[in-house]
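Incident review: delayed structure delivery

Summary: a single-chain prediction request sat in the queue longer than the usual turnaround. Root cause was a stuck worker, restarted by the on-call engineer. No data loss occurred. The affected request and its eventual output are reproduced below so the record is complete for anyone auditing the incident later.

Affected input:
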Amino acid sequence: MSVKHDSDGWSLQFSDEAVWQTSFDYGVSIITEHIVLRVEKSFEVTISDRAVPIEPGSPSNASEVVALHQLALVSATIRPSGALRVNFSGGATLSVASSDDPWEAFTLDVDGGWKFVSMPGGGLTWWLPEGVDGDVVEFRFNN
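Output delivered after worker restart:
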């Protein structure tokens, strides 16, 4: 994984991070070997140039979330506003707009001590591994 932080936010590049599990309840979880993404507000999934709104807790479009299973996470962009865009193999994307809701829109946990949280009401907070200053980092997972 490589990580870059600047005034536009955070850019994360992944390799070999296939989606192992998707979970759909009052939130949506997407899980790989090293990453857990939990989204708890409405978002959009685009597959084959078809954008579909997803409402956690409503099963109407759960199949679009399941379609991400076995795709690889390629990259993620996290904005200071709390917006998130995740790119998957094959061109699929998941987009979460910044939120004015009174709860976190998403949490992105990455093994090794990386955590990004879209704050209630908008904005972003994060935790980094000890010793990382947050500029440009190459990071390898310990398997």
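Verification: DSSP finds one helix and 14 strands in the chain.
Action items: add queue-age alerting; document worker restart procedure.
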